[in-house]
Write a structure and sequence with these properties.
This protein has two domains: 140 residues, 3-Layer(aba) Sandwich (Trna Endonuclease, Chain: A, domain 1); 129 residues, Aspartate Aminotransferase, domain 1 (Alpha-Beta Complex). The chain is built from eight helices and 14 strands. Helix 4 packs across helix 5. Strands 1, 2, 3, 4, 5, 6 and 7 form a seven-stranded mixed beta sheet that branches. Strands 11-12-14-13 form a four-stranded antiparallel beta sheet. A three-stranded antiparallel beta sheet has the order 8-9-10, with no helix packed on it. The longest helix has 17 residues. The termini are far apart. Helices cover 30% and strands 32% of the residues.
């Protein structure tokens, strides 16, 4: 019969055999040990333009890059500042990716948590506590998420303030709202039963009283955005640009935004735009 045994916890900071470089190598060889999903290693000890070296640069399949700093012992101010500086440098150099800072330390201090709270979600950051256990002559490592990624919330996910059509006519124009109506009526040809839902930051879709935002509108004074969800696909962007559409993608929210002058431009690209909206319905597993 198997026995439950108590493992001996060991500190690594002053361990003569286990150094930070070995921990970095262990993570880089198999990033899954961090428990952050299926990550791929990109580079170790990446030299930074303003000085210093980023311990680890990892990435996932959704276009997010993770700037990882390892600290044996407890978190300290220099460790926090260094991690944030490297994250900031990478996101400015490679704005096409989403970026997340990751701090790995043996002890995540209360002071660290207080400092991070001051940023109020402005910096996406994950804190992992590293614990080492002795198993015979070997060392086993465990990574525990102490602080999950904190970001400024998406408008769509906020506790939104309900609005109405009059609010959007003032924020945009009655004429631009008519363009929204016409596009929406066309979409209803393959998405029946939906109605517009006026929120503070966007006009979404609703069916049977339930929000299903496979398509959103953000009308402005002289143009409007239609927004839909999906995984990043450079071929889609290229196809739209070759067709003359102004399209952009936000990896963090997995949102495509297409700028249109009005209904006439939608009609000009109706087949392409409708195919993209339908792909968003598939993304949400919507069949009608």
């Amino acid at each position: 019969m198997a026995k439950i045994v108590k493992m001996e916890k060991v500190q690594l900071k002053n361990n003569s055999k286990i150094k930070e470089d070995l921990i970095q190598s262990f993570i880089f060889d198999d990033p899954s040990v961090l428990g952050l999903g299926d990550l791929s290693p990109i580079q170790r000890e990446k030299i930074q333009p303003l000085g210093g070296r980023l311990d680890l640069l990892l990435a996932d399949d959704d276009g997010t890059r993770y700037e990882v700093e390892v600290q044996l012992g407890a978190t300290d101010p220099s460790h926090i500042i260094r991690t944030i500086e490297y994250w900031d440098t990478e996101r400015k150099r490679y704005p096409q990716y989403d970026h997340c800072a990751v701090i790995v330390a043996e002890e995540i201090t209360g002071r660290f948590m207080n400092v991070i709270s001051l940023f109020n979600g402005a910096i996406p950051l994950i804190a992992l506590q590293l614990t080492a256990y002795k198993q015979g002559d070997d060392i086993s490592l465990a990574f525990t998420k102490v602080l999950d990624r904190v970001t400024i919330v998406n408008d769509e996910d906020e506790q939104y303030e309900a609005t109405d059509r009059k609010y959007w006519e003032g924020r945009s124009t009655p004429k631009m709202l008519q363009n929204v109506d016409k596009i929406f009526d066309s979409v209803k040809e393959y998405a029946s039963g939906y109605e517009l839902k006026y929120n503070k930051f966007y006009i979404g879709m609703m069916k049977d009283g339930i929000s299903k935002n496979f398509l959103m509108f953000r009308p402005k004074k002289n143009y409007l955005y239609i927004v839909y969800k999906g995984n990043e696909n450079p071929e889609i962007v290229q196809k739209c640009e070759e067709s003359g559409l102004d399209i952009s993608y936000t990896p963090r929210w997995k949102e495509y935004s297409i700028q249109l002058s009005g209904f006439d431009e939608y009609l000009k690209h109706k087949e392409l735009i409708d195919s993209l909206i339908k792909s968003s319905m598939e993304y949400f597993n919507i069949t009608d």
